[in-house]
Design goal:
This protein is of the alpha/beta class. The protein folds into two domains: 2-67, 2-Layer Sandwich (Alpha-Beta Plaits), CATH 3.30.70; 87-336, Aldolase class I (TIM Barrel, Alpha-Beta Barrel). It has helices spanning 11-22, 47-58, 111-123, 148-161, 175-181, 195-202, 218-230, 258-265, 274-278, 284-294, 320-336, and strands at residues 2-5, 29-31, 38-40, 63-67, 87-89, 92-94, 100-104, 128-130, 165-168, 184-187, 208-211, 236-240, 270-272, 298-302. The strands form three sheets. It has an eight-stranded parallel β-barrel, surrounded by seven helices. The chain has a four-stranded antiparallel sheet with strand order 2-3-1-4. A two-stranded antiparallel ribbon has the order 5-6. The longest helix is centred in the C-terminal third of the chain and has 17 residues, at 320-336.
Length: 346
Amino acid sequence: MFVTMQPSCPKSQVAEAIQALRGHGLNPRLIQPGNQNVLGIVEEITAETAAKLSKQLKALPGVEEVCDFSKSWKLVSREFKNEPTTIPLGRVEVGSRDILVTAGPCAVESERGFMDIADKVASLGAGALRGGAFKPRTSPYSFRGLGEDGLAIMARAREKHGLPIITEVLEPEEVDLVAAYADVLQIGARNMQNFALLEKVGDTNRPVLLKRGLMSSLKELLLSAEYILARGNWQVMLCERGIRTFETETRNTLDLSAVPILKQYTHLPVVVDPSHAAGKRELVPSLAKAAVAAGADGILVEVHTSPDSALSDGRQSLTIDGFKSLMLDLKPVARAVGRTIPEAAS
């Protein structure tokens, strides 16, 4: 249920509505779109209680409308907050007119290697740096990251270039450590329904990049985001990174329809990871441009100075020249849909 107050109504009337809700043991969430207050009630209540409460609220001064949620996700819904959520990140406000381009290697392999990649993608206009310090790998024998040393390397790259860093956290016990270094906490596809981890990042003040699971529906993605918002952290970006289908020509199948569908359902920003979807670097530019055209608020691409010798996901990583070409090609696509990609910082 949500209660919409009349525009510019006195605070005393908002307080009276809140008190009425608390009288039923409910904890309303207050949001303020423009000059209007909206009270959201996400607790489960019976139909009988909802009917009584609705009648009581409609009789109060200042109450404009009382409605039920039509979706099982609530805080993430446009019914609860119709205005797009924007998340300041470096020189970009994700969810606004600007498009965030995040680039970097799949894994932080060494300080020299990461710094070299960071130097190049920063000069070409990347708005954020990506890299894995803790890597979930299909094989237990694959390179699984440098751990805290990798986080420290990324932090030094941020200090040099002024670009925010995005990196994955795998377990609830690691959240505080990763949050001490990273600007954005990434929840990977395999952890999308790790509810203890979702609640832990929900307790932080860090933006969260939530990736769609390999075989998860959009409803399941939204409900996972609900776990984070329900803990008080509204800084969530949803990420379409491809889902598993019967097709074998690509690593995953990029579901571009997810972008406009999510935009219909939620106020949260939506970004796309074409690298993990394609699994082949020659396909990444086309998918990235298609994502921008579909309305994505950002893209994440993997870039490496020597992809063939990368310790993780080299086949899907763009070369530096490939990233340069992509940045040039993205700008007219962004302009065509009324968006911009900010220039590289001087």
